[in-house]
Amino acid sequence: MQGMDDRAAVAAAPTTHGPSPLRTAARLVGAVFLIVGVLGFVPGITVGHEHLRFAGVESEAFLLGLFQVSVLHNSLHLLYGIAGFIFASTASAAHKYLILGGMGYLILAIIGMSWNFNRDPNFIPVNGWDDALHTVLGIGMIGLGYLAYRKHRSVYGPF
């Protein structure tokens, strides 16, 4: 009878493959990036859509009239969104996606704020609005990763 109790306990124990806050957060962030990536290609939502270029500062298309985008920029948002769903496969991977992805966005914001776009190579167009958004995204993703991990740990224990 002891073996039966052990199997029931294992079956009832939460796993990192269950619906953890980390996995949910990674999926949510991934969904937002997918939506933004698609909207970057939609005329009307992207002002100056006819001036959308593959890459570089020559692209004069602006998502919501504020954020400078290009085909490459939009494609990176789509890939980042897909990555959110892939990394949501486990709580540990979702945590890494949120923390490292947030750090990546903070680095991108710092680069964006320090480059001289008329002189330095710039294959992904960004402007001041992009830099501000990248800063908020970086801080938000790291914060979400931290808060979701605390919630995950309180329910499931450490990884």
From TrEMBL:
Transmembrane segments: 28-49, 61-85, 97-117, 132-149
Keyword Transmembrane: yes
Keyword list, A-Z: Membrane, Transmembrane, Transmembrane helix
Pfam families attached to this UniProt entry: DUF4383
UniProt keyword annotation of Membrane present: yes
Protein name in the entry: Uncharacterized protein DUF4383
Natural source organism: Kineococcus xinjiangensis
UniProt lineage: Bacteria, Bacillati, Actinomycetota, Actinomycetes, Kineosporiales
